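Lab notebook, page 48
Experiment: co-folding of the full assembly
Goal: obtain a model of how the components sit together before planning crosslinking
Operator: M.T.
Materials (sequences as entered):
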Amino acid sequence: MARSDRPRLAVFKFASCDGCQLSLLDCEDELLSIAERLDIVHFPEASRRMLTGPYDIALVEGSITTAHDRERLTEIREQSGFLVSIGACATAGGLQAMRNFADVSDYARTVYPHPEYLSTLETSTPIADYVAVDYELHGCPVDKYQLLEVVLAFASGRRPQIARESVCMECKARGNVCVLVAQGQHCLGPITQAGCGALCPAYSRGCYGCFGVKEQAQVGPLIDHLRAHHGMTLSQARRSLRAYNPAAEPLQIIALQCDKDDVSGSKKGSGGHDG
Amino acid sequence: MLMQRWTPRDVQALINGLRTEGVRVLGPRVGDAAILYDEIETLPIGYGDEQAPGHYRLTAREDQSRFGYNLGPSTWKQFLFPPEEAIFRVQDGEFISCREQPERMAFLGVRACELAAISIQDQVFMGDFTDPGYASRRENLLLIAVNCSQASGNCFCASTGDGPAVGVGADLILTELRPEDPYYLVEAQTEAGQSMISAVGGPAAAPGEIDARDEALAATRLQMQREFATEGIAEALYAALDHPHWDAVAERCLACGNCTQVCPTCFCSSTREQVNPVSLEVTHMRRWESCFTADHSYLSGGVVRPSVKSRYRQWLTHKLAGWEQQFGVSGCTGCGRCVSWCPVGIDLTEEVAEIRRSV
Ligand code: SF4
Ligand code: SF4
Ligand code: SF4
Ligand code: SF4
Ligand code: SF4
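Observation: model returned without errors.
Model output:
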């Protein structure tokens, strides 16, 4: 394809650790052929060549934490055909969204000698809270094969083939022994979207939920069960729900419920079974 | 029928003999905290399991038993109908089959409920329509079954009529007796089974030992804690599609799909085109699906079963009612896996009882 005919791909970063965009550089075997098929016109992590828009596909990493970011995002949206938000920060606030449940000025005072120089929003929120997003790719970080699938799909005008089912589906297909049932570990796999290949249970450890919520996530029933039968405390429940994807609504609702239970001192966790 | 009496050494000789002939012997292996089915060279000794809804623990037995466990999360279907399988690929406009020459396999330690499940999947994959991959693997298969000398806390094959005594369809049937110093009663159901017996040898069993087998099976039946009323179940479920109890289950069910993945009879799959990002070669992949996912009921324009309630109802009504219309048998052989491996311990026998109680 002539250089000018190829779809133009741009990669942008907001509040994030760079891990997701590095997944693209991590595609060692595939990167050259991707670069032939797409014109990578803006990817500061990879090249000093930074062209202006418009872009056919924009990959957006990171969450929105400053007023300036908000403006920059609006410009990117205007310049982009398809806008794909990638990773837990961009789709559900990321680790830094722990500020959403605390006083951000407290944090600033603890971390910085001169907090008065900071200009920051009270919250860390997903890209889709501000602009229209064409596709949200989950993961902390995203899976590089899923990222390739999404990029290739948008480049050829088809829908990405990404399952929205639970991690448990991959866990069973991989032949893992369920760590929740066989060891009583706390595992968020049943409410977490597949994509990682059930990595943690394959190493005998419960899923932390880094791939975000699956469709129809039954967060309340899982947490009730873990609390009633597997010794999960309220603070463990809250911490696990507010770790990687704190702004995801189904997690927020149950985390808030935990706050209320804590205040009322009630020992919740009914309706479960023996086990 | 003639019965042979084998020692553990004879069972090992059977494994060795099959392996020498190039047969892949699949059987129990101690994995991460559970018994798994995998390629084996020998049988694990002295393992059991403790099972309850949503609960499984691998346990150590104080004896020399080789089959003292019941069922783990593995099913034999993983070898006949693998979780993921390449069907064909497209290269430069040519369609190329990905089917491989099937290996000869022997399943060692197939329980009664599992044998019944294999015969159900035979109907699914080799009935009105033949799945060539499944059929080629199935035709090259030896089935070495085991009568259960104990039941797990979640077994209910006596209620479904599929166990604990091994029914028809096995090549060889073993019964393990006297677990502290085990010996095996061995019966052949087919010529292939007969030649396995001839290859190993061993003395004929005494008449008293045949009684010992029947006593062991009777004790296993008595051990089963779950009962499941199967008569009229299809009509009862179809009459109860609006029963309020479906809402109650949906408040606990995670729609995670574990129950369908561990069920030895569930056969749903979906296909997708896997694109190689470098060569752009496309491979048509088939993988296990579940009626608990949204994609399972995605038709043009939307998801037919969006709610957890509708998905749980689909699983139970298909398994226990729709199956009878499709295949003339129930889709449940009472193995109890869906009860054990449901992360929140939902027990289909209890749910059905609840739904039937107040219709
Ligand atoms: S280990 Fe976790 S992800 Fe795997 S099946 Fe169990 S609950 Fe699901
Ligand atoms: S429905 Fe449950 S008990 Fe019945 S065969 Fe399937 S997994 Fe076993
Ligand atoms: S119960 Fe569900 S997953 Fe199992 S065969 Fe029926 S529709 Fe498929
Ligand atoms: S369900 Fe029956 S045949 Fe199957 S393992 Fe349990 S006792 Fe044995
Ligand atoms: S019944 Fe249990 S295993 Fe099945 S989908 Fe619901 S929670 Fe998962």
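Interpretation: Chain A has two domains: 8-156, 167-266.
Next step: discuss with group before ordering constructs.
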